[in-house]
Structure formats: structure tokens, C-alpha cells
From TrEMBL:
Top-rank taxon: Bacteria
SUPFAM superfamilies found in the cross-reference section: Integrin alpha N-terminal domain
Protein name, per record: VCBS repeat-containing protein
Source taxonomy: Bacteria, Bacillati, Actinomycetota, Actinomycetes, Streptosporangiales
Entry keyword annotation includes Repeat: yes
Pfam families registered for this protein in UniProt: FG-GAP (PF01839), FG-GAP_3 (PF13517)
Record field: transmembrane: none
Protein's organism: Nonomuraea thailandensis
InterPro entries: FG-GAP, Int_alpha_beta-p, Integrin_alpha, Integrin_alpha_N
GO cellular component: integrin complex
């Protein structure tokens, strides 16, 4: 499998042995943990070893390393979330690992964990254990159930946002690394957020970052898929300018957003950012996997699913030209158990400079891929329905750049490959992208990349 990783994901920059770690320096590449100029992939298995959890790092060289938590206990769920960013400013990519079910004291049978986050620092020798983050007054917060990295203050260094959807206020997000300030907790009750809060909202269950207005600072999108604004479990997304202390509330009832808010839609269950129209501003894809499209669907059924897309502009995310995607207009057929939009990832699979959107459809054991284009953004033309092995293929997806991304003289946009997991069976699959001057998307043959246990592939970093 190590040889397959090196062959499928990354073409080595040069033949022969890699340079000694001591001779390397970090190059500022966003997915390179070991400074060898190749992107690396982290794969979480939070149910490994009696649910203590583990994370497998697949280095671009073909080497693999298994990360676990010091003092791990059954039930901790190490790997419940992952995020990659340069948190210490040394130009090596670092890895944050959520351990959402760890208890600070005695484990409460059947109770939600307090949660911690373990940082692993990138270095020329690979990832090494760094500091641990935790709340000062832990409760049944599930701190670390979601993570996102981005430059929220414009200082060129990534901050880390940590979701705690079980926080007593209905959910919370804590931001670490903001210039000139300590850890900063935000909830729906924060004065400049000003939202109604219910203990069951799960505010912070999903997170994503992106520069939606092109000002050089990322904004933070916070999903609350169980938010009962006017209907039980309809869901919401809050877009936050952390530095400017501004918040924007989005639901399917927001004017311009297509679709209608219904019970158990779970709007905001998944989030992804990418530049789908190549204008230099991030766009936001919002998964609504509980959306019902089939006739006679019952309450609490899984849902056919849809995905709403909002495009960035100088004024931030626009709601006057949003899109709602479903299998009603794409390859495939919507079914009440498909959960279209349960997972999302963005990456340029054809090298034309515009991101594509990969949409997990685990109920159909598939991933739907929509092409991006400079004129109009995402298009249904040439959309792909990618099938793979595993009962829940598509439950998690990621886009991984090819080796070209890190060549200093590369003049063309990099081509990404699609990584897909069926975590129930612990199967990781990979389909390489290919450069297409036409702007269409064509993925190579889907092949098995790795296999593990304990919900291996639950999430990627």
C-alpha cells in the first residue's frame, strides 16, 4: 500500500533517496508535514482500539506512521476531527486532532465527553506531538468534534477553530492563535452574534474557513445542523468575521437561498469552501443531507439530500444567485436514504484553475462531482457519478493535490485527486484527476488506497 500511495497520489520530485531531514527546511506548503515537498494525507479512525482512536499519516514518500494519544483510554475517539494548518509559523504544516469523547475525570457511562484537541507539529522529521488544548471549565461539550484552520486575522499564520457542539449554551466555537489575544470562545449568545439558542442546536458541529470577500482574511462558517429556528432540526449556518466581530445568519428561509426550511433538513451538516468560478474569492457549499425530495417521505428519514452553494464577492457571500443541487438534475436518482451532501470537498480535478465540488452520497455508495468554470461557477454539464466499494462509500471525501503543487517552477494550476472513504468497512479509495483543457472533469480509475479498522476514513486531514 505504501508503494501505491507514492505511485497514485504523488509522483516523486526526484528519484533516489530523499534528502536527510536535517538538510531540509519547511517550505510553507499547506499539506506537507515533513518538508519533503510532497503533500501528505492524515486518515482518522476514531473507533480504533476499543474506540480509543488513532490517526494514520500517509506521507508522500510512501511511508506511513500511526499517531495515538498519550494516555489513551477506550472511548476517547482520538481522530473525531482533523484540521491542517501552520499554527506556529514555522512554515511546516501542522495537524490538529480532535479527541471529542475524552473525559477530564471519571468517564460518565453513556455521557458525552468533555473533549480535548492534540496538536502535532510538522517538522523535517515528520509530525511530532505538541501542545494539548482544552476548555478551562469542561462539561459535556464534545470539544474537538469539529475543527477548521484558516488565517482569520490576516497575519499570514493560521488560526485554529475548535467546535464544541455539546456546550451547554447549545454549542460553542473557540478560536486559538488570534494575534494579540488568548483563546476566544464564541457562542450564539455572544453579543455580536445575537441568536436564539437551544441546548440541542449543535452550533459548531461543522466548520469551514474561506476568504469570501477577498480582503486577505478568512471568515469562519459555523454549521448548526440541529438548529430549530422555526422548525425542528432545520439547521443553520453562521458566517463570522472573527476579527471584525460580525456575524451573518443563514438558513433555507434566508431570502435568495433556494429551498425551503423543513423539519430535520440538517442544513449545515457539512461545509466546504472553494473557488468554483475562479474570481479569487472563496465560495461556500452547504450540505443539507436531510432534505426530502421523494414522495411520502416520513419524518426523521435520512433524506434524499441537497447542497446549497453561495458565491463570494467583494461584499461577502451573495444570496441573490445561490444554487441548490440535487440528483433531480444530475446523474443518479434521488432516494430518501441517499444523504446527498453528507460530505463535501473542493479541489481542482482538471487543472483549469477553477475548483470542482465533490459531494458524498453514502446512501448510494457514490460521490457526485460538479465541474467549476469561470463563466458561472458550478455546472451540471459533464457531472460525474463515481461509484466505489463499501457500504457507505462517500461518507467522507477529500481533495488531495498532486506533486506539481509544490514545484517552485510550476506555472500551471495543480491537478487534484479525489480521496473517498467507506469508513464502515475501513476502505480508502483514490481516483486521480487529469488535466483537461476543455474544462470538463475526468477522473482516473477508482482504486483502493488503504484499508483499516475502527471507522478508518471517518475524516481526512
Amino acid at each position: 500500500m505504501n508503494a501505491l500511495l507514492a505511485a497514485c497520489l504523488i509522483v516523486p520530485l526526484a528519484s533516489g533517496a530523499a534528502p536527510a531531514a536535517a538538510a531540509r527546511a519547511c517550505g510553507g506548503h499547506p499539506l506537507d508535514f515533513d518538508a519533503d515537498g510532497r503533500p501528505d494525507l492524515a486518515v482518522a479512525a476514531p473507533y480504533d482500539a476499543a474506540r480509543a482512536g488513532s490517526v494514520t499519516v500517509m506521507y508522500g514518500s510512501g511511508e506511513k506512521a500511526k499517531l495515538t494519544q498519550k494516555g489513551a483510554e477506550p472511548g476517547d475517539s482520538f481522530g473525531s476531527a482533523l484540521a491542517v494548518g501552520d499554527f506556529n509559523g514555522d512554515r511546516c504544516a501542522d495537524l490538529a486532532v480532535g479527541v471529542s469523547e475524552e473525559f477530564a475525570g471519571e468517564r460518565v457511562p453513556g455521557g458525552d465527553g468533555n473533549g480535548v484537541v492534540q496538536i502535532f507539529d510538522g517538522s523535517p522529521a515528520g509530525l511530532v506531538a505538541g501542545k494539548e488544548l482544552k476548555l478551562v471549565k469542561p462539561s459535556s461539550d464534545r470539544f474537538g468534534a469539529s475543527l477548521a484552520a484558516g488565517d482569520l486575522d490576516g497575519d499570514g499564520r493560521d488560526e485554529l477553530a475548535v467546535g464544541a457542539p455539546g456546550h451547554r449554551s447549545g454549542g460553542a466555537v473557540t478560536v486559538y492563535g488570534m494575534k494579540g489575544r488568548k483563546a476566544y470562545q464564541i457562542t450564539q449568545k455572544t453579543p455580536w452574534v445575537r441568536q436564539g439558542a437551544n441546548v440541542t442546536d449543535q452550533w459548531g458541529a461543522s466548520l469551514a474557513t474561506g476568504d469570501f470577500d477577498g480582503d486577505g482574511r478568512d471568515e469562519l462558517a459555523v454549521g448548526a445542523p440541529a438548529d430549530s429556528v422555526s422548525k425542528d432540526g432545520q439547521g443553520s449556518v453562521t458566517v463570522i468575521d472573527v476579527r471584525g466581530k460580525r456575524a451573518r445568519f443563514l438558513t433555507q428561509s434566508t431570502p435568495g437561498i433556494k429551498g425551503a426550511a423543513e423539519k430535520w433538513d440538517n442544513f449545515g451538516a457539512s461545509l466546504a469552501t472553494g473557488d468554483f468560478n475562479g474570481d479569487g474569492k472563496a465560495d461556500l457549499a452547504i450540505g443539507v443531507p436531510g432534505e426530502g425530495l421523494s414522495a411520502n417521505q416520513r419524518a426523521m428519514d435520512y433524506g434524499d439530500g441537497t447542497v446549497d452553494v453561495l458565491y463570494g464577492s467583494r461584499a461577502g457571500l451573495r444570496t441573490d444567485r445561490t444554487e441548490a443541487w440535487s440528483q433531480n438534475t444530475l446523474d443518479g436518482r434521488p432516494r430518501y436514504y441517499d444523504r446527498f451532501g453528507a460530505s463535501l470537498a473542493a479541489g481542482d480535478f482538471n487543472g483549469d484553475g477553477n475548483d470542482e465540488l465533490a459531494i458524498g452520497v453514502p446512501g448510494e455508495k457514490a460521490v457526485q462531482v460538479l465541474a467549476g468554470r469561470s463563466s458561472g461557477g458550478l455546472t451540471r454539464v459533464g457531472n460525474l457519478l463515481v461509484k466505489g466499494k463499501g457500504q457507505d462509500f462517500g461518507a467522507s471525501v477529500a481533495a488531495l493535490p498532486g506533486w506539481e503543487r509544490y514545484r517552485s517552477l510550476a506555472k500551471r494550476p495543480p491537478v487534484y485527486g479525489l480521496v473517498v472513504a467507506a469508513p464502515d468497512q475501513g476502505i480508502i479509495m483514490y481516483a486521480p484527476g487529469s488535466r483537461r483543457e476543455s474544462g470538463r472533469v475526468r477522473l482516473g480509475k477508482v482504486r483502493q488506497l488503504d484499508k483499516g479498522t475502527g471507522l478508518y476514513g471517518y475524516t481526512f486531514g
